[in-house]
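Sequence in, structure out. First:
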Amino acid sequence: MAGACEFRRARRPEQIEARRASILEAAEAILAERPLAVITLRELAGRVGLAKSNVLRYFGSREAILLEVLDRRWRDWLDDLAPALRAATPEPVPYGRAVAVATTVARSLLARPLLCELLSAMPTTLEHNITLAYARDFKARAAAHSARLRDLVLAELPQLGRDGAARFAGAVVVITGGLWPHTRPSPAVARACAELGHPPVEPAALVEGLVDQLIGLCVRLS
């Protein structure tokens, strides 16, 4: 229990931040090993050698911890997306620039399955066991991420206008979050779909979904 005592002695801001960082690092490590849905607060606390009550002093819930991981991953994705969009080559098709932008966004998301999983769990699970104060803080950060994506898309497709780019940025989160669970069916559902001759939902469907969304916006706003 020495670790728990040491944790309780953290008082200075830098100590508190170090403790929070250790918890988030543990969460990242577990998420690399196990599905989000089965991870418990007890497991998170055990990974850093703490009691659950100690973890809750720095994060009000398991969900708040996972939302912090989402915030990190969201920010890192946007950092990498910016140069990727600038380097994207327009496709030799109508609305080729829009196709290239949407395809780049989709493929960069597909390269980050944990981000996709966290986005899909955000409205259905992760935002349901947090305080009002934390909800305000997290949603402000989420809005900032969406605004940053809006600006990245607007720089590539100025004809969309600010509102059009914002609509696409919002749709990226909704479409990714809605599609992703269907690409990870349970064994029973996967077998039932196979028996019924229903084709599986492939992750690559995200490319088509975002391309259709962005071309549609370009057509409507042109």
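Second:
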Amino acid sequence: MREYETTFIVQPEISDEGSQAILTKLDASLGSGGADRLMCEDHGKRKLAYEIRKFHKGHYYTLQFLNDGSVVPDLERVLRLDESVLRFLTILADDDVADVDARKAVAAEAEAEQAKRAEERVAREVEEAEARRVAEEAERVAAAEAAATAEAAAQASAAAEAANATDATAEATEAPKATEATEATEAAASTEAAPAQEAAAAGEEKTS
């Protein structure tokens, strides 16, 4: 039995559901061709060696399977007809797999480990997203509190300025009144002093 590897690149914006649909079609092709699927390794998104259809990145996958080679044309036909697949290449990884069951066991273990890493990655991404959400919420609350503090300070400053303006107006209004009262008092005193001064002057004239 021979072992083959088909590496293919999917457009980077294709969703996980879209990629899974491609893998499902490939698995169906392997099953109908009598091949033994070993595993499909997800290499993630990587930068392309050169631009393909205006894409600079692609999602890489490697499908490993056992077969005599007859399933390869049908497998590649599935990839060729899918517009989301940018490139693909099938190579002969092992010309003679002596212990098929042992190879399947190794592949199953590797695939289980890959699934575990994928779950850990998803959990980590969820935690990071939650941490970002909490940080953004804290920043929003801090910004709102800072804005409220600034608004309160502005209102207090405006109130103080208004109070100062009122006091200044009151002082400006009371000053002329005080001056007028002083002038009136002085005028009354002058009026009252005038008869006494006249009387004194008349007395001085009689004495003379």
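Remark: Residues 78 and 156 are 73 Å apart (CA to CA).
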